[in-house]
Amino acid sequence: MWGFQNNDFAKLLATSLFCVAIAVTLNASPAHALRAGSWSWPLAGAHTISRGYEAPSVFYGAGHRGIDLVAEVGQEVLAPADGVVHFVGTVVDRELISLDHGQFLSTFEPVTSTLTEGDRVTRGQVIGTVTTSNHCTCLHMGARQGKDYLSPLAMLASIPAAVLLPWD
């Protein structure tokens, strides 16, 4: 009926459907597709993630809107990309700093900083130091595009482009 006796046709159809699925996925999350790997790590040295990103099931639901990196109190925190200081202060019981990178915001807590809102920062510049918190002995890093939280790993980790290989 459809001519599936021809193995080449079946392979072409499957490959086409796969490509459409990838295109739809990339269009649904342009931040991940366009900016992957564009930020540098906010801590020098080894990077150990003690808790990963957990998206909430609803906008105000429970989740973990960032990643926790193992850090020591007093360790320097570095700007992941060029930007402008968006906020410096205390929220609830934690000191934090937020940077505006144009289309994206990055946030870091608990961090003590001498910078003030409006200061320009460059990638790799020291923006503060890790301080104590009840949350963990870590640096919590968050990322946002507008009101939407993203996994900072999408901005930090370089994911190689997918390559389709021949079936034969």
UniProtKB/TrEMBL annotation:
Annotated GO MF terms: metalloendopeptidase activity
Annotated SUPFAM superfamilies: Duplicated hybrid motif (SSF51261)
InterPro entries per the UniProt record, alphabetical: Cell_wall_metabolism_enzyme, Dup_hybrid_motif, M23ase_b-sheet_dom
Gene3D superfamilies membership: Glucose Permease (Domain IIA) (2.70.70.10)
Keyword terms, alphabetized: Signal
Pfam families, alphabetized: Peptidase_M23
Domain called M23ase beta-sheet core: residue spans: 63-152
Signal peptide start and end residues: 1-33
PANTHER family linked: MUREIN HYDROLASE ACTIVATOR ENVC, PEPTIDASE-RELATED
UniProt-recorded name of the protein: Peptidase family M23
